[in-house]
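Example S7 (structure tokens).
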């Protein structure tokens, strides 16, 4: 049972900075073994790399995404190099937009016009397990469509639901058939990639008021944290009875494939916990560390904290300001 309650911010953002920690760089030697240059990308950018860490036999596989390409690599331990195993190019495009529409773009993206159709630009990826335990790669980005790639059958399909670009994908640590997506449309969606179904939408009345930039699932799978451009961090209950029932019936192909009515998507509008006390700028990364949260904003502020539901405040552990990045020895 999740013991967190909803809280309202008292407007305070003046938190003490903890600076009595050791900043001495650790003497760890890293040796560069291999470099892969993906020269097929139009803008030469790779936005995300993810290892398949929930399947022991697949932990030496990784996937990278950027532009309209998805690449799957295998670590060749004997040769100490990366082998390209699979490569996927997305050729789908959105129709040209009217010149009167102001379309959002990331830095470096070519602005769409009424004369140019819009191609995909993948920003994020994750691994998942589909039906018959087929290993899947899920990628998403600029077009707001989740592309599900089956590494066994070499087939792909798209999941449509978001109204804008997708910033991050995460797989449930307790059910690798469930994938969460954070979008610029101010919502987080839960997908069942076994049956290609949208199960739930997190957002609405007490949801994010601006673009959702990041999300993470607790290792126990009982709650999810999300953050965004509204400077807030929210914690959502993944043990809600209605949500659990929706997940259960989403695995029933007879319900999903019913032509009588669409799948009953569950809408969750009220997070267990919400705060804007920790950051004054966009919160573009949130990660669980045990029962604590590590959150980062765009003004070089990283905070390690834990929600204190009983006192309706946050329990501050450590703040890092102007974080130094130490050089690694190659």
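Recovered sequence:
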């Amino acid at each position: 049972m999740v013991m967190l309650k909803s809280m309202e911010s008292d407007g305070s953002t003046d938190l003490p900075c903890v600076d009595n920690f050791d900043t001495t760089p650790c003497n760890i030697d890293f040796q560069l073994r291999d470099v892969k240059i993906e020269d097929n990308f139009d803008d030469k950018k790779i936005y995300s790399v993810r290892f398949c860490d929930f399947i022991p036999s697949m932990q030496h596989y990784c996937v990278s995404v950027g532009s309209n390409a998805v690449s799957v690599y295998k670590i060749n331990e004997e040769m100490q190099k990366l082998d390209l195993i699979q490569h996927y190019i997305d050729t789908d495009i959105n129709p040209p937009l009217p010149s009167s529409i102001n379309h959002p773009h990331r830095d470096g993206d070519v602005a769409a016009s009424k004369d140019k159709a819009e191609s995909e630009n993948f920003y994020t990826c994750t691994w998942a397990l589909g039906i018959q335990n087929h290993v899947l790669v899920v990628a998403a980005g600029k077009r707001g469509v989740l592309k599900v790639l089956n590494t066994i059958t070499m087939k792909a399909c798209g999941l449509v639901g978001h109204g804008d670009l997708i910033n991050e994908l995460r797989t449930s640590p307790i059910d690798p058939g469930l994938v969460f997506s954070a979008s610029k449309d101010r919502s987080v969606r839960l997908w069942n990639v076994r049956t290609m179904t949208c199960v739930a939408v997190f957002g609405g009345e007490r949801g994010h008021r601006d673009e959702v930039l990041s999300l993470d699932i607790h290792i126990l799978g009982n709650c999810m944290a999300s953050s965004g451009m509204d400077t807030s961090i929210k914690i959502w209950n993944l043990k809600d009875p209605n949500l659990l029932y929706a997940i259960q019936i989403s695995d029933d192909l007879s319900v999903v494939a019913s032509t009588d009515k669409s799948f009953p998507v569950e809408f969750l509008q009220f997070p267990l916990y919400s705060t804007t006390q920790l950051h004054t700028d966009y919160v573009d990364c949130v990660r669980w560390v045990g029962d604590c949260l590590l959150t980062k904003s765009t003004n070089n502020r990283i905070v390690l904290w834990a929600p204190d539901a009983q006192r309706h405040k946050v329990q501050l552990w450590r703040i890092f300001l102007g974080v130094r990045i130490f050089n690694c020895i190659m």
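Notes on this example. The first helix runs from residue 241 to 250.
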